Amino acid sequence: MQDLYSMFTLPPKTTGDQHIKATFQALADAIVPATPWLSLMQGSEHAGDGMDLNLDEFITWCLDYYLAVQGVINVINIPLSGPTAGLLDAAADRLIATGGIKDLRHSEFSGGGAFASLSRDDRCRAIALLEHNNIELRVLPPPYQNNAGLVKFIADALNRFVVFGYYSEWSGYGTTRLALPDNRVLERLPAGWQEVQYPGPSNGYRKLRRYKLSEFKK
Amino acid sequence: MTYDTDIIVIGAGGGGAVIAKELGEMGLKTIVLEAGPWYGNKKWPSPNKERGGHSSSSPEDLDKDLLKKHLNKQESNMNDFISGRYRWGPADRSRSPWLRKVQSNGFAWSVSGVGGATQQYLANCPRAYPAAIDDVWPISYRELIPYYEKVEDTLPVRPAPTTTKEELFYYGAQKAGWSLLNTLDVTGPGYRPQPTATLPPNEKINNPDYSMEQLSNEFEGCTLCGHCVNGCPNGPSVDKMAKRPTSVSYVPLALRTGNVEIRPNTFTTKILTENDPAEGIRAIGVQFRDTWTGETGQLTARVVVMGMWLY
User: Which residues in chain A have Cβ-Cβ distances shorter than 8 Å to B167?
Assistant: First the structure.
């Protein structure tokens, strides 16, 4: 079998770090929670959540691939998955310290830190702290330390990563899902397509009804 | 001083491609430097994998089949803002995107490449509201109208057709008491079909004697596929693709003038200036970097036009 990792040049492999994995599993689970009750009503394809699709891998891949800066000789890649997991923990610490916890149930993501232990709703509250910079910037890991703009930007980006990973065709890339984009192959029907019974892009649809206006008045 | 060319345009997107066509038609030799890739051009058969050619200046280089291959309508492959074909980054997708310091929530979905962000825009081409121009800009809305008309004729821009979704929207708008706005110059509230830079659906679209594949590949007109944001590969030739980003509208027209050369994968890094005794400090050219090799170079011109987004 071809070594999938030989297809990487970027990002560096931050696989195997259980703290990062647990943190982003908790993130995906907060934004796209499992819906087991839907599977009872509408079939098992509706039960899936951000965790089932290995979205933590997608988030890690995106964060590690995202940032590169020009060094003296060549371009240097700066993996952001580790610092971003630390950022989410710092937000969770802040939420706890300021009495912002609203739900005392806690979650289990093996190897996770403060963020992964919060309930779903409180995890969302922790992300909101980052979005509003309601956090002590000096305690954050670099490159987030004292960098209010980057914290706001990444807090929004985390949302986009989860949504893009979940609703796009990414899950259909199967064993090639972490390869470089040009080496990915659609191996199966993506989960979201199955869920809504979408057969995939079409050449078009015979849906022309009429024209409300034939021309705009000059 | 002798110059390499009359005009250098930085960026081949919504602004640069338009001015290149206009200046080319005036007989001015124009070189367009574009930082991103070129999809659907024979000189770059694998635009994300190999460096390919140096530049293109002929409409003969445009290739419909290549464009259809490159624009495969997959959301992640096309639009992922970090690794998609449409991103703010180098053509080589084994590399990270370019760093853009956005110091706030949200992000700027700008796209490098010939066509720029019009490659993925939804072809919605409204004019600005007159109230947003008059007494706000140093130019009046009336002064802008001839330019709007010129672009609307060229793309072209028309009222969007009605599908089931529009029908529902119109029904709701009517029920809510809004009035239909039959105008491009919007001065009050109401609703209207969007002014769209998409060729109207082919008259055969509802005729089952013609397959959807035929309608997509052989005939002109929007096929109502709904993938505008992923790039439109529906049409019989590059310059007749249904959605009208500048890559299929202004760029073919610019190349047809015989005066315009477009160089993708060329990131402009600096404007070169000189201190002219009569005019003072003025631009005389640019420095650039090849995004595949990292090699730098410079070009001089009588005029430098900046057509790209600035942050």
Answer: 209
- A144–chain B Cβ distance below 8 A for any pair: no
Complex ipTM: 0.91
Beta bridge partners of B304: B8
B101 is written with which tokens? 């310091």
Q: Which residue of A has its CA nearest to B293?
A: A74
Q: How far is B5 from chain A (nearest CA, A)?
A: 31
Is A118 in contact with A107 (CB distance < 8 Å)? yes
B226·A208 Cβ contact <8 A: no
Chain A residue at shortest CA distance from B68: A203
pLDDT (tens digit, 9 = 90+) per residue, B207-262?
999 999 999 999 999 999 999 999 999 999 999 999 999 999 999 999 999 999 99
CB-based contact, A177 to chain B, within 8 Å: no
DSSP state of B264: -
Q: Which has the minimum average pLDDT: A50-64, A79-93, A149-163, B71-85? A: A50-64
Sign of the alpha-carbon torsion through A83, A89, A92, A98: negative
Phi, psi of B268, deg, nearest 5: -70, 130
Interface A–B counts its CB contacts (< 8 A) at 155
pLDDT at A10: 47
Inter-chain CB proximity A211 and B93 less than 8 Å: no
Q: Do B105 and A69 touch (CB under 8 A)?
A: no
- More confidently predicted of B279 and A92: A92
Contacts of B184 (CB under 8 A, 6+ apart): A216, B126, B127, B148, B152, B195
Strand order in the sheet with B296-306: B260-263, B30-33, B5-10, B296-306, B280-290, B266-276
Nearest residue in A to B74, CA atom? A169
Among A66-75, A88-97, B235-244, which stretch is predicted with the lowest mean pLDDT? Answer: A66-75
Coil, strand, or helix at residue A171?
A: helix
pLDDT tens string B150-165: 999 999 999 999 999 9
Minimal C-alpha gap between B196 and chain A (Å): 11
3-state helix, strand, coil split of chain B in percent (to 5) is: 25, 20, 55
Q: Judged by CB atoms within 8 Å, which residues 86-125 of A form the interface with B? A: none
Q: How many CA atoms lie within 13 A of B196 on its CB side?
A: 21
Q: Could you tell me the pLDDT band of residue A13, with boundaries at 50, 70 and 90?
A: low
Cα of B136 vs its chain's centroid, Å: 27
Q: Do A213 and B193 touch (CB under 8 A)?
A: yes
| Contact between chains at A62 and B184 (C-beta distance less than 8 A) | no
Q: Do A66 and B234 touch (CB under 8 A)?
A: no
Phi-psi category of residue B13: left, alpha or beta, with phi > 0 → left and psi -120 to 50 → alpha: beta
